């Protein structure tokens, strides 16, 4: 188990290093002049030269990369050129607000999706099962930004139940006002993934229930409840865990879109802001943070899978 | 396996239903590239924000442009994204997967580590990163979306080819002294196609989704193009006054995606006996 964990940790480090090279290369090799973007098109050549020197843009690329990488290892993510503030602080604040959307959405998807899937599989052919299948089919195929528009139209413009966009800090708006701004984004963010996970859990449990060891357990006369919860469900959840890690990636992509639609000041919207304003240091730093989060999500899923799956757990100790 | 035994509440031929809807949507989009009821780009101050009616079935937008005409004229962009992206990931992904499986060792390692790296960036972010530093355009969106699905096809093709290369008919070809290319082209690829087609069918939905999401973020075709995601983004400011500007392209996009998804599922039922 220890060697398995170590191997996966090294994998994460490798991916982060590779990613840092890729992000740096894309940002620096593709055309687009940072200094002109900051100063505007009427900048004098002297001003551009001075700024380029200040930002270290004249150094060899390898040196620039090393400055950037070693800075990040020390916790210095560079400064946002547009907002003139350390990128680390900006990203930290935005990340905290994004977590307010991502964590409830992920919990909803993990528990709600599995519960719906188990219900559908154990009540196969019922009205609820059919409704769920239809719902899953529609939900998977509809883009988040369109759901978001429909949700805003319905709950904000027509019913006036919830605020359409934005974010209100708890200190200003109180707990209710704060929470009201989170409801629609979290809902939109979870729906598609909820459909994904519940569909997978359903088919996975149906597969397991048709297996020979479940037949054997039933033949031994075990009560159905015990067959289900001790023998079938733990095995049926294995694929769901792998897919949850993949969904973490979709969730990150979804957050970019959802935060843009709802004008929610999180990390996703910050990345789009950095792109629109050509704030490359902020963009690079933000991308690295998102990659790190995604790599960690995959690592956690791998480890969880290993803990739950005796074949990996035992095999890796040999 | 067990899903095969499920009673379906959908009509049995998912492929037919999806295919017919998709054909209708595609026909409408193709007609839209040569003819639309009104010029999709001409402003008309007198006709601003008109509600849907007999003259403008989908209403008009903030510049007085006919929304139906714009939806028709922009539809091919979503179709092109889906088809183009799949073509790119096929053309790049399948040969790389075959190569990795055939040569193993060093080539395999290099290809698969590259794939690991590409997969470790969430799809939308890969698009953001590339489109961030260069001016966005339709071709770049297609290329980026295609790139996102390359790793999936490399992994799938490699796994399929590794299995097929052990088969006796491949051993026979090797014994006949055939080279890498004839073996891969004549022996391996024909047997690997069905699962690859199924995978592509299911991925097209996500490719169109990702393309329209990138356009929605402003990283796709630029105005005055009427890509559906872009139209929805533009209509957001008028959501309360004129919801049809967003709803018309949005519902068309949903119709397209659902029909593509139906075709994908139908293809899977038809071609992949393991998932029926």
At a glance:
The complex is a heterodimer of chains A (318) and B (276). Chain A is mostly helical and 318 residues long. Chain A contains 13 helices and two strands.
- What is the largest interface, and how many residues per chain? A-B, 56 and 48 residues
Extended strand count of chain B: 0
What portion of the residues of chain A fall into strands of 2 or more residues? under 5%
Strand content of chain B: under 5%
Structural class of chain A: mainly alpha
Please summarize the sheet with the most strands of chain A.
2 strands, antiparallel
Strand element count of chain A? 2
Query: What order do the strands of the largest sheet of chain A run in, or round the barrel if closed?
Result: 1-2
Question: What characteristic shape of chain B results from the CA principal axes?
Answer: elongated
